[in-house]
Write a structure and sequence with these properties.
3 domains, four-stranded mixed sheet, about 450 residues, Ribosomal Protein S5, domain 2, single chain, 21 strands
Length: about 450
């Protein structure tokens, strides 16, 4: 068999017979890696195999029993736990906590008498043990560790241990001997190693759950081919890094659950811990008499869960011809639009004022449900008029200054009622038959009516 040398783009998989500085497919520079292919004149005749054709109605659909880890935020994002024959990949920036979370999940399953194999191509066995001593209260007997970059040795370890749950840290650090001299991280190696794990997981006789850790590239995506994400069942992204102890886990793909779910964790010296009530993180703990101007409360939905969030604004006089418009939590164009609506429809002049908007905890304002709260918080800062800490604002604001309905309004109001809020300001005629204990629903049609009621602005 002859060896044919080709060059493959590590970003998009484009192949060529000669090395190129720039990939003509994706436009990346210096992304081509050498790859050897077996090439010969002999052709192996494929032996056709018969596949059984079954009518769709005749196939029995069975809901697979999930494995609960008791890490509540992880189980929430996964859709209720781990499916026994599923393949999941998790990625995050360096230091984000993906290895810590993976080890915690393995320990949680080991407590349920599941056999766990933790394979690492990045760390030595002693490094893994040091992390386990730091974050785990008790190291279970049913956790095995192998530290090697050879995928063949890892597969042999699977045969010896016969685990129910496999962790690979990370998929870009291992290589199969059949595809040498291609180095670990090469697109071919990455895909073939991942495919071998998929075959292990999907074995009908002995299904296993697999959690792969994927390195993140400079574009905040999983390093390697996009086909890797298509190969697995679930893609998880763990965000938050550095000194910020808050971490958010979201699913960008999930064959067994919703992709909109987000779980929140706090990073400590003892590892990652679930935040069961995120509203406590995203709103300030103020009592009556401690109100400050520029703060307004709203309710955002992360997946199926409503979260009370505090919007903070700071308005200050500008000494330049072009006032600043700064937002850490929303798009600048969206902020400029809301400021224009407040000026034109709310009768508030901001052309000489700098405006800065953010949220407590750094949660992104991706929903239009927060628009009224943003506008009210800006006005509160401008007028130096604090708002009561038990008021909330739930509505979208159109360019005409009218308040508009938002999705899942009833569930958001019920969350406010559960937390003891007394008033919620929203659009007129959108709430029907909502049984509440504490909160009073105050409905208005336009922004100017809200400004008059809250600030006495005519």
């Amino acid at each position: 068999m002859k060896q044919k040398i080709i060059y493959q783009c590590t970003e998009c998989g484009y192949t060529t017979s000669k090395w190129m500085g720039k990939c003509p497919e994706c436009g990346e520079w210096n992304s081509f890696a050498e790859k050897q292919e077996k090439n010969g004149s002999q052709k192996i005749a494929a032996t056709p195999t018969e596949s059984k054709i079954i009518p769709l109605r005749a196939i029995s659909g069975t809901e697979k029993e999930r494995i609960y880890t008791d890490i509540t935020e992880f189980d929430r994002v996964m859709g209720g736990g781990i499916v026994p024959d599923s393949v999941t990949i998790i990625t995050s920036p360096p230091g984000g906590g993906k290895s810590t979370l993976a080890l915690s999940i393995g320990c949680a399953l080991a407590k349920q008498k599941k056999r766990v194999l933790y394979a690492s191509g990045e760390e030595s066995a002693s490094q893994i043990k040091n992390r386990a001593d730091r974050i785990l209260a008790d190291i279970q007997e049913s956790i095995w560790v192998i530290a090697d970059t050879s995928m063949n040795k890892i597969l042999n370890a699977v045969e010896q241990v016969d685990p129910d749950f496999i962790v690979l840290d990370s998929i870009q650090t291992v290589a199969l001997e059949e595809y040498l001299p291609s180095r670990p991280g090469n697109p071919t190696q990455t895909m073939e190693c991942a495919q071998s794990l998929v075959q292990l997981a999907k074995n009908e006789v002995r299904p296993r759950a697999v959690l792969m850790i994927g390195q993140m590239n400079k574009n905040d995506e999983i390093a390697g081919l996009r086909a890797l994400e298509h190969l697995v069942d679930t893609v998880l992204v763990l965000e938050g890094e550095g000194a910020d102890g808050l971490r958010s886990l979201s699913a960008t793909k999930n064959r067994f659950g919703n992709t909109g779910e987000i779980g929140f964790f706090t990073m400590t010296e003892k590892g990652l811990f679930s935040i069961d009530n995120p509203s406590e993180i995203f709103m300030s703990d103020r009592k009556k008499g401690e109100e400050v101007s520029g703060a307004a409360l709203t309710v955002l939905r992360e997946g199926s869960r409503p979260i009370v969030t505090e919007v903070e604004s700071l308005v200050s006089k500008s000494f330049t011809p072009y006032p600043s418009r700064i937002s850490e939590s929303m798009k600048k164009d969206t902020l400029n639009t809301l400021i224009s609506v407040l000026e034109q429809r709310g009768g508030v002049a901001l052309y000489e004022q700098n405006v800065v908007v953010r949220t407590a905890g750094g949660l992104k304002l991706k929903e239009q449900a927060a628009n009224l709260a943003v506008i009210v918080s800006i006005a509160s800062s401008l007028f130096n008029r604090p708002l009561p800490t038990d008021w909330a604002f739930l509505a979208d604001v159109s360019l005409t200054g009218e308040l508009k309905r938002i999705p899942a309004l009833e569930s958001r109001i019920r969350e406010l009622d559960r937390m003891g809020f007394t008033k919620v300001f929203t659009a007129r005629g959108v709430v029907k038959n909502c049984a509440l204990k504490h909160v009073e629903i105050v409905e208005f049609h336009t922004l100017s009516q809200i400004m008059s009621e809250v600030f006495g602005k005519k």
